[in-house]
Design brief:
By secondary structure, the protein is mostly beta strands. Helices cover about 0% and strands about 45% of the residues. A 14-stranded parallel beta sheet has the order 2-5-8-10-12-15-18-20-22-24-26-28-30-32, with no helix packed on it. It has a six-stranded parallel β-barrel with strand order 11-13-16-19-17-14. The N and C termini lie far apart (about 70 Å).
Length: about 500
């Protein structure tokens, strides 16, 4: 067993103890014994560069900081209360990669451990064509903090404040394994002085594996002109779960399971996208997926439009949201929000949960698109026999809250749409610029539910107000677009009728 206990391993300062690497600070720890583990406890491994210390002395001082590589070929890797760092600060050196690989075992990162690959202020770092990374791979991967101590959380950090692109975070569970992240943070943000793009965060569980986030946060925010990174979570043929559940004995920790990609005030960089792909996806107990922008577009550069990223959820079976969980795409400024698209055989939004696309400024809110091959259920209550008053915003909501903002449309395609127990499908705007509700279904069932369009017209223009359009499921996209054009032009008034191809639509309202 390779066991590093209470050691300081620092290639930059030549205080490496048992491991002394001076040339490039390259740490390589490998255990090839059968069943052998690599254990790093209360230790620090650092392969950092500073302004005085270029990695190589060639005519081009751009090089690469040291790489940290930890491999267990048959056992586990356990990192407890330790830090691994390949940070670049105020130099032209690139940050080195950090690679943790348990080829036939588990990678466990716990107890306030930090894995860091960052570019500090004014650092050149790498160019956008390179791929710095923190890569963690094993039969299973666990990144754990403690639920009863908000200061005790494990962190993976690839923030960039320089002109180089931030490092990617890639976490992979092989052979049907599990990725479990609890009370921890992965931060790949682009900070104020950065011009390089942020790193991407990628979680992958293949062959029917599962990914769970409990009271943990993944950030790809941008505070600058650099583009925010994407968040990609894939458990093909498996499950993805986000849960903010707190144990009853918890007194201190108030974290939630969140995926966040934000364009912050004064930033012009484009926000990152969210992409989830699995057999099933579950959000519960206040979990949240959100892209938002408060940024300001740069009029001199169309690529720096400060637009928020899109949210795409693509599953083979079901998406379930419960316990006040949220899926939001939002703008609070002049930049446009991202879109929301959910594709699933079954979609269930229950327990005061909601999917929203909103504009709280002058920017445009994009569309919400739901494709449920079998069924879509919206219910304010967790229980089918509990009756609530219909509440706009619980269920599906596209809105602009201020004059000048533009609300997107809500499009639903499914065999069976059920809106019940106080849920609603809502588009609204205080003054015009509202989207439509377009539903293509074989049947719509309302049981104390509602379809609402509360957008005012401007200057008596009939094309400004929102509309509720109910169509047979097989209605073509071309026919829907044609109908929308007629409505916008004000040519489909009280005397207007339009025959559209498609299967019959059955509408049932059981509410009183």
């Amino acid at each position: 067993m390779v066991d590093l206990l209470n050691r300081v391993l620092d290639a930059n300062r030549n205080e490496t103890g048992d491991i002394n690497l001076i040339s490039n600070g390259y740490f390589r720890i490998v255990n090839i014994k059968v069943g052998g583990n690599v254990v790093i406890t209360n230790s620090r491994l650092s392969a950092e560069t500073a302004q005085r210390n270029y990695v190589n002395d060639s005519q081009d001082p751009r090089g690469r900081a040291g790489k940290i590589e930890v491999t267990s070929r048959t056992g586990e890797i356990k990192i407890s209360n330790s830090s691994l760092s390949t940070t670049t600060g105020s130099s032209k050196a690139d940050p080195g990669n950090i690679l943790l690989t348990a080829q036939n075992g588990k990678v466990l990162i716990q107890d306030n451990s930090k894995i860091t690959n960052t570019i500090e202020d004014n650092s050149s770092g790498i160019n956008d064509n390179s791929s710095p990374k923190i890569e963690i791979k094993g039969r299973s991967v666990e990144i754990l903090g403690k639920s009863d101590d908000i200061s005790n959380f494990s962190l993976i950090d690839t923030r960039t404040s320089g002109i180089g692109k931030g490092a990617d975070v890639i976490v992979t569970a092989i052979s049907g394994g599990v990725i479990r992240i609890e009370n921890s943070t992965i931060d790949a943000s682009t900070h104020k002085s950065a011009t390089g793009g942020g790193g991407n965060i990628s979680l992958n569980a293949d062959s029917g594996g599962s990914i769970s986030l409990t009271r943990s946060t993944l950030f790809t925010d941008t505070f600058s002109s650099g583009k925010g990174g994407n968040i990609e979570i894939s458990a093909e043929n498996g499950s993805i779960s986000l849960n903010s559940f707190l144990p009853l004995e918890t007194k201190f920790f108030d974290g939630k399971a969140t995926l966040v990609a934000t364009v912050n005030p004064d930033a012009s960089g484009t926000g990152g996208d969210m992409n989830l792909k699995a057999k099933t996806v579950v959000l519960e107990n206040g979990a949240k997926i959100e892209t938002q922008t408060a940024g300001t577009p740069d009029p001199s550069d169309p690529n720096k439009n400060a637009q928020a990223g899109n949210i795409t959820v693509n599953v083979q079976d079901s998406v379930t949201m419960s316990g006040q969980s949220e899926l939001n795409a939002k703008t609070t400024g002049s930049a446009n929000a991202g879109s929301v698209k959910i594709t699933a055989n079954k979609l269930r939004i229950k327990g005061a949960s909601k999917a929203t696309a909103t504009s709280e400024g002058s920017g445009k809110a994009e569309d919400i698109t739901i494709v449920g091959a079998n069924s879509v259920l919206l219910s304010r209550s967790e229980f089918t026999d509990f009756r609530e008053v219909s509440t706009p915003g619980i269920g599906l909501l596209a809105e602009a809250t201020k004059k000048g903002g533009t609300a997107g449309k809500i499009s639903i395609t499914t065999d069976d749409l059920r809106v019940e127990n106080g849920a609603a499908v809502t588009v609204r705007s205080p003054e015009g610029q509202g989207g439509n509700v377009v539903i293509r279904a074989k049947g719509i069932f309302l049981d104390n539910g509602a379809l609402l369009a509360t957008t005012a017209q401007r200057n008596n223009n009939p094309g400004d107000g929102s509309n509720i359009i109910l169509l047979g499921k097989e209605t073509t996209d071309e026919a829907v677009d044609e109908l929308g054009s007629l409505i916008e032009e004000g040519k489909l008034g009280s005397q207007g009728k339009k025959s559209l191809p498609g299967s019959p639509l059955h509408f049932i309202d059981s509410g009183q």
